[in-house]
Predict the structure.
Amino acid sequence: MLTIPPLITETERELLQNLIANAKRILICGHRGPDGDAVGSALLRWLPGIQDISFYMRHETEATQAIKNCDLVFCLDFNALHRLMEMGDAIAAHNAPRVIIDHHLNPDRNAAALTISHPQMCSTCEVVLRLLLQLGGYEDMATRAAAALYTGMMTDTGGFTYNSNSPEIYQLISLLLAKGIDKDKIYRNVFNTYSESRLRLTGYILYKKLDFYQDRRASIFTLTRSEMTRFNFIRGDAEGLVNMPLQVKGMRLSISLREDTERDVVRVSLRSVDDFPCNKMAEEFFNGGGHLNASGGELPFPLSEAVKTAERAIEAYAHLL
Ligand code: 5GP
Ligand code: MN
């Protein structure tokens, strides 16, 4: 029988508990364009609590006030303040201590009083759950909290299809199931709630936009603003599309290039299988980073130029494809 080992040292536990005990107003923040793991490690859209989230980009005054008023900041699912864009500057300028809880490589330890970083873990939600077990919070955990944590573990592993071989993950899941979550419904809520036009957008991209390269082990597709308009694109509709080319036998790398809807940049998403290092490619070619098999970045030039950069990246990494 496996047991879940403690996550942090006794010294770290004391530091964490002191930070919390001395704080009156705690701020919890996630990265821009939050995914299931960022939101799930705090709460989730179709769960009670979503109404309490303040989006810095949309409610800057309210969010700035919340930052000024807090005396402890939890940074969930990101490894450095610059990942928060403008909100990162506001938090850096505020003198409240920070705790980073994350699973991305190379955390900026100087940015926090305590950094709980575990890149080998599937999700920040897994880190949070292990922390909660160690601190003795399991007995009191509500079903909705269990559902939020399950969601982040599920979304960051593509429904436990990658980055999910650790036996302990399934022990943790069994602890969440014991809290009465409906994991099948969570799956449907996350993956099967798209619009008809999103499904047709998928068909359009796969039929018309997807190009294969390097003896078909890599692919690129692009998505323009006008195509988004044509398919009634709403935020999140591009989520997961980049995984689809990897369904082709032998595929190692998938690159998606999408015009940002707000800024004049191209958002880049990279997905790979096995040992192909998306994060290295993202750092080297796309001003970004991320995980071995899932990374992202952005390019400050038009889509046609971005395609050329992506083609050069594939060429440069041909030996690893
Ligand atoms: P996605 O393709 O879903 O936008 O991003 C996948 C992963 O890549 C994210 O979980 C994050 O770790 C990383 N990532 C995405 N965009 C950026 C970026 O602009 N900079 C860095 N450093 N990492 C990114
Ligand atoms: Mn994550």
In short: The radius of gyration is 20 Å.
